[in-house]
Amino acid sequence: MQIQVDTHTHTLSSGHAYSTIIENSQAAAAKGLKMFCNTDHASLMPGAPHFWYFANQRVLPRFLNGVAVLRGVEANIVNTDGEVDLDNTVLAKLDWVIASLHEPVFKPMTAKEHTEALINTIKSGVVDAIGHPGNPNYDFDFEKVIRTAAEHNVLVEINNSSLGRSRVGSAPRCEEIAMIAKEVGARITTGSDAHFAADVGNFSSIQTLLAHVNFPQELITTQHPQSLLDFLTERGKAVAEQYQGHQW
């Protein structure tokens, strides 16, 4: 199963990760990736950078070590209204926006409230993907949320870290999420959620899971840079001129 894009990576700017973006790009190149997304935590996560960090990503090169770099964020869902902790004017300038539920920002509530928060986030129109939805601390109505994501052209993430060291108990939930996504035709994204450069491009657990459920390749937006860029174009985002017509 081919995956050439890592849509979820962190740098030391997140406050609890340990590598620079240059080190992440070197690791991505060594793994044979064609593209990765820089998605540090938005400001309400303890230790995360000021919003200027995200507004200033325009200074980043479009390629590092031969690997395309999308400018992004892992924003925090802050309430059941589906609001996130980064201003819409900044979000609009980013290539890629993940929105996730994190315990230090959104205290776990009931499945009904989590479902409401996720659906409203999806419907907000400002996020491209829902991050690590397998977290057992945030139960929700899988089918309702995944169908809503498909209807609003928002991706559901299968997170490699959730299938290993992080968010223990996520694995069976991720499998169910993948099976429902397959059933309803929801597209997914795949992220390493790397907090150290060596984990960039690590999709080993994702690939095992997707193979196990016989997940359709055509629903995986990260199979190739162009498939992700095409998705972002569908969402009305402008593709950087450096990527237009690029021979991947």
| Shape descriptor | globular
Oligomer: single chain
> How far is it from the N-terminal to the C-terminal residue, by CA?
18 Å
What portion of residues is helical?
25-40%
* CATH level-two architecture: Alpha-Beta Barrel
Order of helices and strands: EHEHEEHEHEHEHEHH
CATH class, named: Alpha Beta
Which residues sit in consecutive blocks of at least 5 with pLDDT less than 50?
Answer: none
Number of strands: 8
Query: What fraction of residues sit in β-strands?
Result: 5-15%
Number of helices: 8
Structural class: alpha/beta
CATH homology superfamily: Metal-dependent hydrolases
Family: Belongs to the PHP family.
EC number: 3.1.3.-
GO molecular function, one term: zinc ion binding
Enzyme class: hydrolase
Give an overview of the whole structure.
With 248 residues, the protein is α/β, with parallel strands linked by helices. The protein has a single domain (5-234), classed as Metal-dependent hydrolases (TIM Barrel), CATH 3.20.20. The chain is built from eight helices and eight strands. The chain has helices at 21-31, 51-55, 88-91, 111-123, 142-151, 171-184, 204-212, 225-234; strands at residues 5-9, 35-38, 63-64, 67-76, 96-100, 129-130, 155-159, 188-191. Strands 1, 2, 3, 4, 5, 6, 7 and 8 form an eight-stranded mixed beta sheet that branches. Helix 4 (111-123) runs parallel beside helix 5 (142-151). The protein is globular, with a radius of gyration of 16 Å. The chain starts with a strand and ends in a 14-residue tail after the last helix. 47% of the residues are buried. The model has no long low-confidence stretch (mean pLDDT 97). This is Putative phosphatase YcdX. One of its GO terms (molecular function) is zinc ion binding. Zn(2+) 2 binds at residues 16, 41, 195. Belongs to the PHP family.
